[in-house]
Structure formats: structure tokens, C-alpha cells
Specification:
The complex is a heterodimer of chains A (80) and B (558). Chain A is of the alpha+beta class. Chain A has a single domain, classed as Ubiquitin-like (UB roll), CATH 3.10.20.30. In chain A, 21% of the residues lie in helices and 30% in strands. Chain A is built from two helices and seven strands. Chain A has a five-stranded mixed sheet. A two-stranded antiparallel sheet of chain A has the order 3-6. In chain A, β4 and β5 form a beta hairpin. Chain B is of the alpha+beta class and 558 residues long. Chain B is 22% helix and 30% strand. Chain B contains nine helices and 34 strands. In chain B, the strands form ten sheets. Chain B has a six-stranded mixed sheet, with no helix packed on it. A six-stranded mixed sheet of chain B has the order 25-22-26-29-28-27, sandwiched between helices. In chain B, strands 30-32-31-33-34 form a five-stranded mixed barrel. The relative contact order of chain B is 0.10. Classes of the chains: A alpha+beta (80), B alpha+beta (558). The interface between A and B is large, with 28 and 44 residues.
Chain lengths: 80, 558
């Protein structure tokens, strides 16, 4: 999975993009977070406010993710 | 409804033309301007960041959703990204509607939703001093070239950067290593290279209807039972002719059919006397391989990005592609530093060891067709510097194996900095391989590899192989696979992510991994069997037999 970080999350991870291996065929939202927090425990405090997008579309808690997906962590936005 | 959305780094004009159309009664425009102060302090600019594909998509979705309740005729949106100076518009929205109230209401709702859902961020406010500095940084631009005067660190990478997790180093390498230029090479040299131009069928495959058996071609619809043989066609012949009722042509396997709408009677199903053919059996099968049956003209046969294997090379040969376009190989310089090293054919004196890393590096690169230039150098500044200067332009990849002596890490790092390399990574949290260095100068990527052989083995197979794959232009298939642990793994350091040497094999169709004995990174003996690395997540002391684990396969022959 390609994982993208934006805004303040980039400060925490120190990079804009990483790739993570999906364990098994697919995984759910908490699976993705588990992988992320393993790599970057510093993201834990942002989890409450971060939304996930799969292939450039917001997804809900029921979403499943596969290895070829691009997953973006979207912190609160501030455009305009 | 007309929708036009732009995300742009360039300032946009103050006047934006309204859409043309007879039914517009209102054209409402809004510009959001960057204020000259934030939280009471003066600012000179704001930096905007966007997840561009999603931002565009999300804006379109919002517009279409609002339009269902609040019809309008046209929506134009421009949003700036990058640095926007105070006083400049960061966002522009123009709405055309039949009446003004509709357009105002649309605009208002759109702006509210934009600020809620569209992935665009104000990154930071810049003071005028920061803005000047940022502009200066931009005009310098480009990849850092060899500057000796000041020890270089990449802009933005602090000197004492914290140790990087393995995943971060891998992501960085994929970012730093863009595919190298393609070149044409003869088929004989193309094994293992990455194809850069998709190979397509230059004509239908097969190019003509051909018989798949030895037999007799007759018309598809012909109820005659005794045929007259009027001709003979062998493989390689080209004898087009129309067959009449009652006519047959003797035809060999692979030979071109004389016309369409035929079938071939197998010779076993016919009896021949002189030039008369009598059918013994009528079979439904036409016994022909039809034109374009295997591939149609222009059909994609081998996609760009494919690693060429014996089979795909044979296919290229059959297509007439004698010099495929493939990624060029990187040029590699390997320096083994260390005063204690002697070559493998020598007997080490007291305190000395044989240099095994040079053999490891050469063998690791060999399956990729890369032959490195290798030098063994003593750990003194002058001799290594002389070698580094050679690496100025000729080499894409510089591998420095640190000696086992104390301080080898700082020695390598100091040398690279002195030679004008920007240090991107100076430590990883991964074990083994903690003192890994990743640096770059111009086109040359450098790795400082920790001296002991097992750490070498791990760093080559994780980090260097990722750089080589990215350079080659291989699609990123992910480094890790899933397998089953065939024995308990104990003794991992729970404080760090560990890559444990292992032997993988297929056991009843399942990938089974046996962890190899490993006490310290200096251990050599596990290299006898190692062909994989098990990833042990931080926080894990051990893993029980039978559990599912992630592993990376090591570079291997065939």
C-alpha cells in the first residue's frame, strides 16, 4: 500500500509517502492504523481527527484496503 | 452544467472571463485573499499544500451534490498551491446562475464545504525574512553538486537527523532513484533487464491461417465424398487459390491455407488413391490455426516495466525486436575500507580478517548483470578521498563497506560530507544495520554500509536492492511476502525492528521459513543458508512456530 501524509502529519513522519505491505489479501481501517502506528507511534494522537481516503476518495470505518491501494491520511483541512 | 477546476502554483489573473451563455442572469465571483497578518503578527505569505487528484475530485463531487438541490449553469474554481503572497488571491470561485439568489447560495455553500472536505492545507505562514530565504533556496535549485567548501547536508535535513525506520529509508530511496535512461541492447544482453517500451504484435499472430495437421484442405461446406487432389502446399509455400466443390489440396502442418472458408481433413481420416481422396470420417474440427488467433496486430504482448526472462526474450525474438529498449545498468563503485582486511587468498596476521564483503557485494550484484569496480582502501582520509573523486561523475552508486574498527561510521560520514555528499540518512532503527548512511551528490547515490557481513547482507538485500529496483524502473511489487514460521524465533530485540536471517523453502505448497541462529551482527555462519529476511516488528521478543510472518527474499541466482 502506498501511504500518503499531508500537512502536520508530514512533520510527525518526516516524509510524505511510505509504502506498507498489507498483511494478507486485504485489511480494514484498524489494520491500516495498526501498521501505521507500528511505524510511527507519534501518529497516535492524530488518529481521532484524521480521515482516511482510498484512491483519492474518503472512506468510512467499514472500508477494506488492498496492496495496490493508495491510502491518504487526511488531517483537518484548511483550504480557501 | 459547466465545471472547470484548476489547482495552480502560478498566480492567476484578477479578471476571469464569465462563461458565455444566453440563459445566465447572474455571474457571482468570490476571491479569498491572503491576509497580511496572522494571530496579530505580520506575515508575508502562506504556503498551501494539496492532495491534488483528490482535491479536484472532491470539489467536483461537492459541486455536483449542491447542484442537485441548487441548480446553476457554470462553476469555475481556481485554488493556488505553493507559496501565495499576502494580498494575492488564494482561491477564486465564479458561479453562473439564472438568478442572483441561486448563485449566491451556491457560492456560500461551496465555500463552507471546501473548508470542510477538500484536502488542501495552509502549511505555514512565512515572514518576509523567511520568504526571502525560501526564494533564495528555490533559485539555487536542482540537485546539490560537489561543493567542497562547506560540508553539505540537504536543505531541510538536519545534521543530527533522528534514526530512520526501515520503511522510511525504503520510501526515501524510491523517491531518490528515478528510472535511469533507457538504451538499446542486443537480445543476448537483455536477460534480467527491464523493458521500457511495451512490445506489441507487429502483425497478426499467426499472420495467416495455417494448417495444424498433415492432411487435405477442402471447402468448409462440401458434401462430396470423393475429392480430386489439385495441388500440394508445404510449410513455407504461399499458394493462394480458391477451391471448388470436390477439390482438395494436400497440405502440411504449419503450411498456409490457400484461402478462407476451408477445413483440413487429417490424413488419417482419408484414403488416397492416385489423385483421388475418399473421406473415411467427417469431423467437426477444422484443424486450422487462424490468423490473429494468438495475438492481433498492435496487441500488447510484453508490458513496459517487465523484467525480461528467457521466455519473454524468445517472444521478442519472434517479433523481430532484436534490440529491445531497456533500462541501462547503474555503474557501481565499491570501496572496502578497513586496515584489518586481507584478501581471501591470504592468511590473516594477528588481529586481521579476510575481506568477505567484497565477495558478497560482487555476488549480490551479479544476478542483475552489474559488475562493480572494487577497491580495497586503508582507512586514511587521503586514499579514500582519492577514490571518491573518481566517483565524481562516472558512478551512479557508491557502496562503502565500513571497516570493523571503532568509529568507521563517523569516518565514512565525514568523508562523504567532505566530498560534497548530502546526508539523507545517517542511522536506521532497524537491526542489524543501524549505522547505515544514505547520501547523494548530483547523480551519485552513496551507501555507507556497516562493516560486519551479516549487516551487509541485510542492508544490501533491503536498501540497496530497493534502490536498484527503482533505478531499473521495475514496478514496486512490495518487498515483503507472507510465509509460515517453521521453527520458533527467539531472542529478538523488542526495542527495534529486526530483519532476521532465515532460510525459506516450499513445504507442501506453503512457504516455510526457518530462522537461522544469530547472536550478534558479527556472526558469519548463518550466511551459509540465508536466503531470506524475516521482519520482526518492534515490540516483539520472539515468534512461535506456525505463525504468519512477513519476509523479504534475498537476491539469488536464478
Amino acid at each position: 500500500m502506498k501511504i500518503l501524509f499531508f500537512g502536520p502529519l508530514k512533520e510527525i513522519t518526516g516524509c510524505g509517502e511510505i509504502s506498507l505491505r498489507c498483511p494478507g489479501v486485504d485489511t480494514d481501517t484498524s489494520g491500516v492504523w495498526q501498521l501505521l502506528l507500528q511505524a510511527y507511534p507519534g501518529l497516535a494522537s492524530s488518529r481521532r481527527v484524521v480521515r482516511l481516503a482510498r484512491n483519492a476518495v474518503y472512506v468510512g470505518p467499514q472500508a477494506r484496503f488492498q496492496d495496490h491501494d493508495e491510502v491518504a491520511l487526511i488531517p483537518p483541512v484548511s483550504g480557501g | 452544467m459547466e465545471i472547470d477546476i484548476q489547482l495552480t502554483a502560478a498566480p492567476f489573473p484578477w479578471r476571469c472571463p464569465p462563461p458565455s451563455g444566453a440563459s445566465h442572469g447572474a455571474w457571482v465571483e468570490f476571491r479569498g485573499i491572503v491576509r497580511g497578518e496572522e494571530k496579530g503578527a505580520p506575515i508575508a505569505a502562506l504556503d498551501y499544500e494539496a492532495y491534488v487528484p483528490m482535491a479536484e475530485r472532491e470539489m467536483r463531487r461537492i459541486i455536483e451534490e449542491i447542484a442537485q438541490r441548487q441548480p446553476c449553469l457554470a462553476v469555475h474554481v481556481i485554488h493556488r498551491i505553493g507559496t501565495v503572497l499576502a494580498g494575492e488571491p488564494a482561491v477564486y470561485v465564479g458561479i453562473a446562475g439564472r438568478h442572483r439568489m441561486e448563485a449566491f447560495a451556491f457560492l456560500d455553500e461551496f465555500m463552507v464545504r471546501l473548508k470542510q472536505d477538500v484536502p488542501i492545507w495552509k502549511q505555514r505562514a512565512l515572514t518576509s525574512a523567511q520568504l526571502r530565504k525560501a526564494k533564495l533556496g528555490r533559485t539555487e535549485g536542482g540537485a546539490p553538486t560537489g561543493r567542497r567548501s562547506r560540508p553539505a547536508t540537504t536543505r531541510g535535513v538536519p545534521k543530527a537527523a533522528p534514526p530512520a525506520a526501515a520503511a522510511e529509508v525504503l520510501a526515501l530511496l524510491r523517491q531518490l532513484c528515478r528510472p535511469l535512461k533507457p538504451e538499446r541492447v542486443p537480445l543476448a544482453d537483455a536477460l534480467g533487464r527491464v523493458l521500457r517500451k511495451t512490445a506489441r504484435a507487429p502483425e497478426d499472430q499467426p499472420a495467416f491461417d495455417r494448417s495444424s495437421v498433415d492432411g487435405y484442405a477442402v471447402r468448409l461446406v462440401d458434401s462430396t465424398s470423393a475429392f480430386r487432389i489439385v495441388d500440394e502446399i508445404r510449410a513455407g509455400d504461399w499458394k493462394p487459390r480458391a477451391l471448388r466443390q470436390g477439390q482438395a489440396v494436400r497440405i502440411a502442418t504449419g503450411a498456409a491455407a490457400p484461402s478462407e472458408d476451408l477445413r483440413v481433413v487429417m490424413k488419417e481420416d482419408a484414403e488416397v488413391r492416385g489423385d483421388t481422396l475418399t473421406l473415411l470420417r467427417r469431423e467437426a474440427h477444422r484443424n486450422l490455426r487462424f490468423r490473429g488467433e494468438d495475438a492481433r496486430l498492435g496487441q500488447e504482448l510484453i508490458a513496459a516495466g517487465t523484467v525480461l526472462q528467457p521466455g519473454s526474450l524468445a517472444l521478442l525474438a519472434s517479433l523481430g525486436c532484436a534490440e529491445p529498449l531497456v533500462t541501462r545498468l547503474p555503474r557501481v563503485l565499491h570501496l572496502a575500507t578497513g586496515n584489518e582486511l586481507v584478501s581471501p587468498d591470504q592468511k590473516p596476521g594477528r588481529g586481521q580478517i579476510r575481506d568477505s564483503n567484497s565477495t558478497l557485494v560482487r555476488a549480490f550484484l551479479a544476478p542483475r548483470g552489474i559488475a562493480p569496480l572494487q577497491r580495497r582502501v586503508t582507512e586514511d582520509q587521503a586514499s579514500v578521498k582519492a577514490e571518491l573523486d573518481r566517483a565524481r561523475l562516472e558512478f551512479d552508486l557508491l557502496l562503502i563497506s565500513g571497516g570493523a574498527s571503532v568509529g568507521d561510521h563517523d569516518f565514512t560520514r565525514g568523508l562523504l560530507e567532505e566530498a560534497g555528499f548530502a546526508i539523507h540518512v545517517s542511522k536506521t532503527t532497524a537491526r542489524p544495520g543501524k549505522p547505515l548512511i544514505v547520501a547523494r551528490r548530483g547523480r551519485t547515490l552513496a551507501f555507507g554500509l556497516p562493516g560486519n557481513p551479516l549487516a551487509h547482507y541485510v542492508c544490501l538485500n533491503l536498501f540497496v536492492s530497493t534502490a536498484l529496483d527503482a533505478w531499473a524502473g521495475r514496478p514496486d511489487p512490495g518487498l515483503f511476502h507472507t510465509g509460515t514460521l517453521a521453527a520458533d524465533l527467539t531472542g529478538a530485540d523488542p526495542a527495534r525492528e529486526t530483519f532476521w536471517p532465515a532460510e525459506w523453502r516450499l513445504e507442501q505448497g506453503q512457504v516455510a521459513l526457518t530462522p537461522l541462529p544469530w547472536r550478534s551482527s558479527g556472526d558469519l555462519t548463518s550466511l551459509a543458508k540465508a536466503n531470506a529476511l524475516i521482519r520482526v516488528a518492534p515490540g516483539t521478543k520472539g515468534l512461535a512456530r506456525g505463525c504468519q510472518i512477513e519476509f523479504a527474499r534475498a537476491e539469488r541466482i536464478a
